[in-house]
Amino acid sequence: MVAADYSVYGATRRAEKVKDIEATGATAVVVDVYDAERLNEELVRIQPWAVIHQLTDLPRGLSPELMAKAVENNARIRTEGTRNLVAAARAAGATRLIAQSIAWAYRPGDTPYLETCPLDVEAQGSRGISVGGVAALEKQVLSEPTLNGTVLRYGQLYGPDTGTDEPTGTSPVHVKAAARAALLALQTEQSGIFNITQDSPTVSNEKAKRVLGWSPTEEA
After folding, report:
1. Domains of the chain
2. Which own/partner contact pairs does 19-26 have at CB distance under 8 Å and 24+ positions apart?
3. 150 pLDDT above the threshold of 90
4. Out of the domains of life, which is the source (predicted)?
5. What is the pLDDT of residues 171-214, one digit of tens each?
6. Which string of DSSP letters, residue by residue, matches the chain?
7. pLDDT of residue 63
8. Residue 60: is its pLDDT beyond 70?
9. Is-above-0.85 flag for pTM?
10. What does the pLDDT look like over 12-55, one tens digit per residue?
11. What's the CA gap between 170 and 188, in Å, rounded?
12. How far apart are CA 57 and CA 47, in angstroms?
């Protein structure tokens, strides 16, 4: 975003992350998404026209022993965190909201999965918790009447700072290609849902290629 000449603010709830954000050329804002009042204050102060929701709550390196709790934390941030962020964006007068979702929450069925395929909302256990959070996030982003909402269903991220250097899962995507998709969504102002994955027989990325002009091999 910075390289594309946008004025960028990056939010973190951890003060030690400020230097990392500022190193990219963005302005760091320390705020907890669960502190709705403070989040509102910060967005109203900044007055962004667009908000990009990349919030997650996952352990570094996706440590297996921490993932059970992380599934609950991540579902909470997708549900409650998204609710607070949508409200703050609305209060700040933003007109655009782009949010990260996932491309492996589809209900089992014929492949490749299209954006119109149903999510696996009847799943049980940890998958049910995760998909429930995804469904809540997407509904809030796409149903807010004051915001032009876009959902980017990322595949399993790999690359710098993701915890894995090589593609994993059935529908991976390089983190820089995912970032490129967010930039294109911002520039084209296209609303709706897009699968952002590498070419695979499991998940179709044709809509993102056709509508956003995105390529899984093109990095931000």
Report:
1. 54-212 (3.40.50.720)
2. 26/1, 26/2
3. yes
4. Bacteria
5. 999 999 999 999 999 999 999 999 999 999 999 999 999 999 99
6. -TTTT---EEEES-GGGHHHHHHTTPEEEE--TT-HHHHHHHHHHH--SEEEE------GGG-GGGHHHHHHHHHHIIIIIHHHHHHHHHHHT--EEEEEEESS-BPS-SSSBPTTSPB-TT--HHHHHHHHHHHHHHHHHHH-TTSEEEEEEE-EEEBTTTTBSS--SSSEEEHHHHHHHHHHHHHHT--EEEEE--S-SSB--HHIIIII---TT---
7. 66
8. no
9. yes
10. 999 999 999 999 999 999 999 999 999 999 999 999 999 999 99
11. 28
12. 25
Token look-up 């004051």 returns 146
> Interior CA angle at 76 toward 19 and 30, to 5°?
20
Q: Which two tokens stand for residue 112?
A: 């490749």
